[in-house]
Specification:
Length: 116
């Protein structure tokens, strides 16, 4: 079978997954009202915080949504607080920037704080 035989067919096999012809992901959730807001930002912040911490299992990121804004609260082992905040707060400022960027990709305003 040649490529000309497949014109008009999406796939010949039965293993059709959630990709369309261009390789873009087809979203199964219909409508904007069914999505959980801020999940991408939460996942990104949690990933970065776990990479920074000595005890990654103790990292937990809570998501709170209020009127379209998302607040991400990082809970960590007290021994890892210094690593998350960094000298003069430089590390947490970088984590906040990454969180804002991930939130902007979803169309939400995300803020990141550290729980004491």
């Amino acid at each position: 079978m040649t490529d000309d035989d497949n014109i008009g067919n999406i796939r010949d096999d039965d293993d059709f997954d959630d990709d369309d012809i261009d390789g873009n992901f087809v979203d199964e959730v219909g409508g904007e009202g069914n999505r959980i807001v801020g999940v991408r930002a939460q996942a990104v912040v949690e990933h970065v915080a776990r990479a920074l911490a000595d005890d990654p299992d103790a990292i937990e990121v809570d998501l709170q949504e209020r009127r379209g804004d998302v607040t991400l609260l990082i809970h960590a082992n007290p021994d890892d607080m210094g690593r998350l905040i960094g000298r003069r707060g430089r590390v947490i400022q970088a984590v906040r920037q990454v969180g804002r960027a991930a939130g902007a990709a979803e169309g939400v305003r995300a803020t990141v704080d550290v729980a004491e």
